[in-house]
Amino acid sequence: MAILAFVLIAHEPAEVVGKSIDMLLTADDECVVCLHYDRNSSLAEFAELKRRYDANERVLLVEERARCGWGQFGLVDGTIRALRLLATSGKAYSHAYLVSCSCWPIRPLVELKRFLDHNDEVDFIESHDERWMTGGLRQERYTLRHPFSFARRRVLFEASVRLQRKLGIKRKIPAGLAPRYGSQWWCLRRETIIGILRWVKENPAAYHFYRQVWIPDETFFQTIVHALGGAVAHGYIPTLYTFNIHGKPIVFYDDHLAWLQEQPHFFARKVAQSAEQCRSALLMRAALPHPADQAVLTVPQAGTRMPPRTETSPSYGRIFDPGSGIRNWPKNLETMRQPSAVLYGPPQLTRFAAEILRASGSLTVLGRLFHAERAEFQPGQSDFHGLQSNEIRLRDYDRALYLSRILSRCTDLPVFELCPGDDPTLERLVFENEKVFVAIPLLPGGRLPAWRFLFWYLALPEQQQAAIDAAGHWFDRLRRTEEVATRHFGQKHVAAMERKLFGSANGASLIFSEAGTPPDPDWKASLQFLHGGRMEPLLKSFDRIAETFTGQDWRKLAPSFVGESEGLAIRHG
């Protein structure tokens, strides 16, 4: 039976890398793992890995590490160094399988080995012509020099491309090579690995040529395997990978487990580190025996990387929906089918109202999902069904998708806090899309225009409030409040929100923190008509919110307004 040697390229902390190595060793008790650890990563972390696997003969660590980066030669060179170590180690193996720490098995590894036995005359690597690429540079990946990192020094990268085009600079592709392209991830036979290493040794100049090829990990091995003339299983590799329409890899979470287990592949990337339930279940499956009477997986003849679409109308938040648009709130909100309530106002007020609603039960009450420093879920909770509160870059990549994923994970009616400055576009849309959002504005003092000063003061960060408090006369404090809020939140945004919150057209449909203004019964009836019985727990809480808020003197939170706000409505109302 096939013997696997996993070539693991990694840059993550030692604990994360160790989990991947241990997973492979556990799932296959005769495999070898050869690790190349990015030289950009911590030396202390590498020392920890060496200490951890020093006595394990099934784990090989590349000592002379290469610096790696997206689209750069280090990913190729690091892999070649790992293959050299594997070749000189004397370890027995029939196939080398390239993986990373985000690759996770989705089928038993015994089944993978039977599959390789059944297809022992072919290599599993994508090797296509330039039509494989959907956009960006094509021949210029080779014919231009690319000394700058696209990810870290994009301005220089693009300037270099423009300059070389202008000067007519073109590099000559090494003789005997016809550029081929495909996914970075492959599974190759031992004889193919030997052939690649021999080619590198015999063609040092051509190997050096790839140092300034753009994204060489998607063309080097693909081109050399093609040049060696071996048989390739066209259109299929054992690793499942998917990209959205914007070219970004799709990350799999706990709720993708069932779908992943149905796919005709043996590994999937990228399975999130936070998807602990998914990873644990897949690990158990990876170590299972494969019944001898069970048919060996047949290489699919057509693309299978996207799940079948069974809906005729879009549903934003389904991760594979090709209509999902980045940062396009209006379009995306049209397809969100699950309503939610939004507590809008200064953070002290939204937090106060959220606590009231949590006590009522039958609601999923979340915090400030779009807080600048973190996504706030429920008190003391850093994980929400696989989403982590500190994953700010993931959240901000596509906020509409992130919100939809949050709402889809809520069993009860979701309620979340939204404060001025969290997301200006969403703040405005919350009051315009009643089919998706129940907007609950929380206004300290009431809806009279005079109280807008107190609203913006409480919405500002503490350091901004301190600058206002320093002003001597009450009129100067009001003027400074207006100036600071306009500067901090933006003049257009402040004006737009004041029209929605304090404009004369807005009346009974909103909840205010002023005496004598309970929620309008017609508004409550309208909500029930729009959203049905799902609204009932929220409707029962409305009167309690209004009653509790009317008894609060929010000026106590604002030293600038104590003693001055009594006549504020008369002077400015």
Distance between the termini: 85 Å
Which structural class fits the helix and strand makeup? alpha/beta
- What Rg is obtained from the alpha carbons, in whole angstroms? 30 Å
Low-confidence runs of at least 5 consecutive residues:
302-315, 317-326, 569-573
Q: How many individual helices?
A: 23
**Largest sheet, strands/sense/barrel:** 5 strands, mixed
Fraction of residues in β-strands: 5-15%
List keywords for this structure.
single chain, 573 residues, alpha/beta, five-stranded mixed β-sheet, four-stranded parallel β-sheet, 23 helices, 14 strands, 10% strand, disordered C terminus
Quick gist of this model?
Helix content is 40%, strand content 10%.
Characterization of the model:
By secondary structure, the chain is of the alpha/beta class. The protein is 40% helix and 10% strand. Helix 7 crosses helix 9, helix 17 crosses helix 19 and helix 19 packs across helix 20. The longest helix has 16 residues. The C terminus is likely disordered.
